[in-house]
């Protein structure tokens, strides 16, 4: 794993239509089989840089396919050819469920 990406998609639709579109994006991200962490504002994905860039692109297209006339996305990219810290390493101490409930 040489990259991690945090993505927040904001489809330009009425408020009540945002969540179903975002849910479709998250379903797609889950379908990739990569390690992900869904947060209240963004979803973090770990994997190969090129694969993650393709996923970011596809997330935009999904929003349009679901009826949004446009989409604004905020993306954070952590890339290091030698490897990056995992989601678990960065967040485990803050999530008891990752520590066996401790």
TrEMBL record:
Pfam families: Thiamine_BP. InterPro entries: MTH1187/YkoF-like, Thiamine_BP, UPF0045_domain. Residues 5-94 form the Thiamine-binding protein domain. One of its GO terms (cellular component) is cytosol. SUPFAM superfamilies: MTH1187/YkoF-like. Belongs to the UPF0045 family. PANTHER family: UPF0045 PROTEIN ECM15. This is Thiamine-binding protein domain-containing protein. It comes from Clostridium luticellarii.
């Amino acid at each position: 794993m040489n990259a991690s990406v945090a993505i927040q998609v904001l489809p330009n639709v009425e408020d009540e239509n945002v969540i179903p579109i975002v849910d479709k994006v998250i379903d797609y991200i889950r379908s990739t089989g990569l390690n992900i962490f869904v947060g209240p504002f963004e979803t973090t994905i770990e994997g190969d840089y090129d694969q993650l860039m393709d996923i970011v692109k596809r997330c935009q297209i999904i929003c349009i396919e679901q009826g949004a006339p446009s989409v604004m996305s905020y993306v954070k990219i952590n890339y290091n050819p030698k490897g990056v810290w995992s989601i678990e390493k960065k967040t485990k101490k803050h999530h008891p469920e990752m520590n066996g409930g401790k």
